[in-house]
Amino acid sequence: MVRHNNQLPDNLPQLQNLIKRDPESYKEEFLQQYQHYKSTLEVFHLEPTQFNKSLDELIIFLAQVAHCYPGDLKTYPQEIVDILQTHNIILDNEMRMTFCKALIQLRNKSLLEPTALLSLFFELLKCQDKALRQFLQTHIVTDIKNVNAKHKNAKINTVLQNFMFSMLKNPNVKAAKMSVDIMIELYNKNVWNDIKTVNVIATGCFSKVTKVAVASLKFFLGTDPEEKDSDDSDSDDEPSVREIMMANKVNKKTKKRQKQLKKAKQTFVKAKKKKSKAPQYNFSALHLIHDPQDFAEKLFKQIEKNNDRFEVKLMTLDVVSRLIGLHNLFLLNFYPYIQRFLQPHQREVTKLLQFIAQAAHELVPPEVLEPVLKTLANNFVTERNSADVMAIGLNTVREICTRCPLAMNEDLLEDLTRYKHYKERSVMMAAHSLIGTFRRVMPDLLHKKEKGRPTEANIMIKSSKYGEIRASEFVPGAEVLYNQPAKNNKENDSDEEDDDEWIDISTSSKEETSEEEESNEEDISEEETSEEEIRINESVDLDETTRSSICKNENDKTLLDSETIGTQNTCEENSQNRETNQVLRKKNVLTKQMKKAQKLEKRIKHKSEKNEELTAERKTKASEISTQRILSDKDFRKIDVALAKQEVTYAKRGVKRSHDQILTNQNGELVKLSDIENIYKKRKHDKAARQQSVKKGQETRDKFGFKDRRQNPLCSTTNREKRKGKVFSMLKQKLKTKVKRSFREKQIALKNHLIKQRRMK
Questions:
Q1: Where does the SDA1 N-terminal domain lie (predicted)?
Q2: How far apart are CA 748 and CA 759, in angstroms?
Q3: How confident is the model at residue 557 (pLDDT cuts 50, 70, 90)?
């Protein structure tokens, strides 16, 4: 075999490897290649549109070894930048990509500043090369992310942010769109998650370019779920620690494998720590806008002015409604604008209903939202529509009333609650949910039948007036902790855990018996007064009837006899006396009734004063605990249990609580579309839906039969396992055994053999 001579001038990868190991020894070979690069570059300047393979290889080679000879390659980065600036459009796609890759390698070796590259890369966006644009975008994002990896570099960030913000106003559409996309991606990756970035993206909503405006609006509406799924899938493809440990155990022990195992263990520990940490919640981008009122007004004005597509208008309305709901803004023209489109046949009507429910809050005047509720009742909640439309209308009314209960009047609520007896189940359930919300929010508007049996929590609710703000001075339910020590022993931990699992709602028997006795005494006293009144009235009636009969008899006698006039005068005097007696007796009866009523009022007043004293005590206890003591998680658990008991235990007769309870909005800041479209609790499945659910279940389910215990299903198997999968015709020859003779055949053979031997003698 002939040994080849030195091939370094032709084999650039080999030379590159040797230079990185020992730069000084191979400097002559490097200078030779550098001279060759200069000559090929001059040739390239003559025909910049053509692809030059030798120049392509030399550019990558010099970029790889630039850190070894920084003095000799001082002008090399600027040469590539000049080529891209002068011939950016006419260059061949592959050559342009090679130049960009070389610059990125130089930037990764810290031989270039990031600001110098950014301006050049944004100029290259003019080129009609989609692959290059995506490549540059990923590089810019990763480069800024790496700059802020250990700590946020404020100096570089301000320079880069100012440049990116200036590119947003660039007349080049692609540059503006790319700058918005980069800022959004950096915000989602928690690199540039400051107020300045959010407010600059907010200016993109007013861009004349539709793509830029839509990207900015989508940013404020939330993150893209597809990106999250892709991140999860990338993490699933990576090998686990168990697999690497198994491979390291079986394979040959090398330094490379040991490093891989060490790195995998470190990443595993890091991920475990990250999971155990408390989750960090970032503010929504809508919370970080400087002037939300002005921003919402401008967006709404843009909807009225511009003739955009329906989808863009929907996104803008969604952002405006979220702003109004989150910041409690006053944009009174918004409600009549959407009110025009509230028809069952309207395209995407459920989203419009969601927007108007999101935009409702406590500070909106009730006169503004009343016509909206009436249009919903007239257009949706009518029997001429289908049951689904009626249910959606009732759900929307419920969502609006949870945020602004003062918009509902008593007559309209009474009409809507009558649908609880409707024949369709969806409408009936929607009406019941509306009644349930008003039981929680404003029970005074409901009819007596719809109020239900009052609980302790319901009695605390007070209907607030428009613009009324209630500030709580204490933690509601903190009076439970008054007689308990601040430090909880370890012995009580198990009891508290049990309390979390089961909530015992049985009150003390003494309280129940005492309160029942009091209520029974009141009932007995009321019954006694009513019975006494009936007896007195009956006695008065009897006296009147007897006296009238006597007077009649006497008058008859005087008329029949007609003897003297004196007798008539006496009868008249008697009748007058009787009338005066009747009036006096009636007055006596009235005075007795008044006295008994006064006694009852005094009792009720005395009892209410006692209850007020009790509530005042509870209030003072709760305020004392909440001001003088730091509540732990266990204390809050006990308070939650006490509040849960109040929700379930029915109120006793005569109990009135003066302290307010802050009603937290269970639906959160935004309205979910599923809350409005929730017509059925469980929809009926057709055949296609059932088949789809069956297939979905089969994907996650383990296969029946033999379970392969190997970690990697693609690794090799034993011959015994392979034999199980083979066809019988392949194994038939091997399974053939030697055919043995029977005992009789052996006897005959032996006999013949002996006879043969005897003959031979």
A1: 61-423
A2: 17
A3: very low
Q: Terminus-to-terminus CA distance in the chain, angstroms?
A: 74
3-state secondary structure 352-407: HHHHHHHCCCCCCCHHHHHHHHHHHHHHCCCCCCCHHHHHHHHHHHHHHHHHCHHH
Q: Which residue has the higher pLDDT, 668 or 471?
A: 471
Distance CA 248, CA 242 (A): 10
Q: How many Å is the maximal CA-CA distance in the chain? A: 190
> Measured between alpha carbons, how far is residue 233 from residues 238, 457, 530 in Å?
9, 47, 79
CA angle in degrees (0–180, nearest 5) for 692-696-698:
115
**CA–CA dist 330, 336 (Å, integer):** 13
Arithmetic mean of pLDDT, 574-579: 60
The rounded distance, in Å, linking the Cα atoms of 62 and 70 is 11
HSE (CB half, 13 Å, CA atoms) of 711?
Answer: 10
> Strand, coil or helix: what is 477?
coil
When pLDDT is cut at 50, 70 and 90, the band that residue 217 belongs to is: very high
CB under 8 Å to 56, separation ≥6 — which residues? Answer: 94, 95, 98
Local structure of 534: helix, strand or coil: helix
d(CA 453, CA 652): 11
Single-letter code of the amino acid located at 286: L
Give the Cβ contact number of residue 466 at 10 Å.
12
Give the range among 122-126, 484-488, 697-701 with minimum mean pLDDT: 484-488
Q: For residue range 61-90, what is the model confidence (pLDDT) as tens digits?
A: 999 999 998 888 888 989 999 999 888 888
Taking the CA atoms of residue 724, residue 727, residue 732 and residue 734 in that order, the dihedral angle to the nearest 10 degrees is -40
What does each C-alpha distance from 426 to 317, 364, 388, 418, 553 come to in angstroms?
29, 30, 7, 14, 74
Give 16-36 pLDDT, tens digit per residue: 888 888 889 888 989 999 999
User: How far is the C-alpha of 618 from the C-alpha of 585, rounded, in Å?
Assistant: 50
Q: Report d(CA 386, CA 344) in Å as an integer.
A: 10
Residue 228: both structure tokens together: 């999250």
Element (H, E) at 57: helix 53-64
Give the span between the Cα atoms of 308 and 446, in whole angstroms: 44
What is the distance between the alpha carbons of residues 363 and 466, in angstroms, rounded to a whole number? 7
CA distances to 483, 623, 644 from 474, in Å: 17, 5, 18
Angle at 712 between CA 706 and CA 715, to 5 degrees: 90
Nearest CA-CA partner of 325 in 288, 357, 290, 359: 359
Higher pLDDT, 659 or 101: 101
Collect all residues with Cβ–Cβ distance below 8 Å to 91 and sequence separation of at least 6.
Answer: 48, 49, 83, 84, 99
Give the pLDDT confidence score for residue 653 in this predicted structure: 46
